Amino acid sequence: MALIFYYAPMSTASLTEAVLAELGVACERVKLDIDAGDTRKPAFLKINPNGRVPAIVHDGTAIWESSAITMYLGEIFGIDVGLYPPPGPKRGEAMKWISWTSATLGEAAGRLSAALPTGAVGGVQTGSVDFVQPEQRDAAALAKAKADVTACLAVLNDGLEGRAFLAGDYTLADPHLFMMVGWIAAMDVDLAPFANISGWMGRVSARPALAPLFAG
User: Fold this and answer.
1) DSSP assignment string, the chain
2) pTM check: above 0.85
3) Residue 212 lies in a domain
4) Which of 48, 52, 76, 133 could form a disulfide with 64 if both were Cys (CB 3.0 to 4.6 A apart)?
């Protein structure tokens, strides 16, 4: 089955990259340059009309939104290798965290990224559809976004209480959310107050399949 992965460095495509690494799925990789406008070109907009990465094309069908991609890859490739639960409550728990990553935590993180100074680590790239002109940013928006991200991290920290991983056992929900939290940490958000998150980050980062993503 042919699988094509459209990505850009330093983007939320890192979530899909981590999931693919865990699954060990072979794919054709198409690198896009956001600042050069690659994600706004007609050829890519035919794949994802939102003009964002990640996106995949599997057997001719385009799938976008990182959460949808992770759940799809889990259903197709993850069940037999023990990385995605079969239908049932554990599946629902994994889906909950995967969806929350984008719908709640990712929304707040996106606002924080857009409010950072141009060129800041973790900030929105200038060629992105999410780029906000400097004159449209203000300190209040930055503070609100950071507060919202911190509140989300408290939810995650509580959810990890007494658990090694999000759904108890390791699933694709863990690398998916891990990469989002890593992006947040790069935006100078202090994770030190969240002991459960820090411990979980250490366990996920120790996964052999993910080690190449952090090399160099």
Assistant:
1) --EEEEE-TTSTHHHHHHHHHHHT---EEEE--TTTTGGGSHHHHTT-TT--S-EEEETTEEEESHHHHHHHHIIIIITTTTSSPPTTHHHHHHHHHHHHIIIIIHHHHHHHHHHSPTT-TTPPPTTSTT---GGG--HHHHHHHHHHHHHHHHHHHHHTTT-SBTBBB--THHHHHHHHHHHHHHTT---TT-HHHHHHHHHHHT-GGGHHHH--
2) yes
3) no
4) 48
